[in-house]
Task: structure prediction
Amino acid sequence: MIPVQFDYAAPTTLQEALGVLAEAGEDAKVIAGGQSLLPILRMRLNAPEKVVDLGRIEELRGITDEGSHLVIGAMTTYADVLASSAVRDHAALLVEAVKTVADPQIRHRGTVGGALVHADPAGDVGAPALALGAEFVITGPGGERTVPADEFFRDLFETAVGEGELLTRIRVPKHTGWGAHYEKFVRVAHQWSIVAVGATVRVDGGSIAEARVGLTNMGSTPLRATAVEQALVGRPATEEAVREACAAAAEGTDPPSDLNGSADYRRHLATVLTRRAVLAAAGA
Amino acid sequence: MTRINVRVDGVTYTDEVEPRTLLVHYLREQLGKTGTVVGCDTSNCGACTVHLDGRSVKSCNVLALQADGHEVTTIEGLATDGRLHPMQQAFHECHALQCGYCTPGMIMQAIDVLNENPKPSEQEIREGLEGNLCRCTGYHNIVKAVQQVAGTGEGERA
Result:
């Protein structure tokens, strides 16, 4: 299978990229690592007139420490995240989730920013970004704006990034010393989340002091299980106490029904996986 | 058509390609390097795995243009002076193939696994090869071959 013909541009600076996008308008499609886009183009589910490759823009790549936040360039690959001690120390949930993405070859090419803008509800970085309260820096012809995580994901494959704009970096508040786990339920050969749950918790004296829980593929966007987060605070990190708090994991969700499972089955999975994720994150 | 410069298996090529040309098609159809095969064409099976700047990628999921200015190693670039690469030799000795279709990608990924982690456990080898499917389900001897090269586990040469 080969894609429909398209024109190609590979700008080397952000300014140049924004110029190319402005000129091409709605007929352009941005390619980051291409690990989601190229299958789409090959299957001809999309046929853009122009593909704008961000792969040669150095300034979009890399992870920097800005004190209270880690700043992850949108073109940073999954493999770069896994190799970063800063991410492991300050945003462990992201590492736990990225480990489960597809396979090593895909993780060498695929990018964090590309996955976030693609916004597949079964993608594995959205829920952790949401749970960690990440901020999304979006750059357009008019300059930069910063969008909080709970306003970034709009709908199925739709984010706050508008036409002519690019996600340039993700600012992740440090969660230093927080335990983290990403519990993913998949068919092994596919690694595509049927449901997954990312949990990160701060344990203090055997009790859960703070908790963040993100849900993958429980609706058209990643979701945060705020009822569970609140119910966990102050509880001992024990199976029984956590089980009770996680019973509300599917509250307010709208999971899909498909060949892999019905919506009801996914709601059941969400409570089980949330319990497992929280217990593992708490080191229990 | 767009011009690219790519170094493949140690030789520099300058070619005109259509932007939509996938790296695997460029390797096979323009360079004649048919050692790299197309398996599933959906980025699942890993049969088309090559190294791009030393890291494994699925060449059906990379545009030839994205390799412009970069270095590609295929299964055809592994042997030196007529001698098989140790991983090729180990696949041969351990009978790590049945129909052989997944073998080029499997070998390229197995080398990447050991580049990342020279002494992997059996579990780490299996996880490192999770993006490569063997339609004969002959994983057992594939894992043994990787262990032989790593000098770990049962596959280690006596």
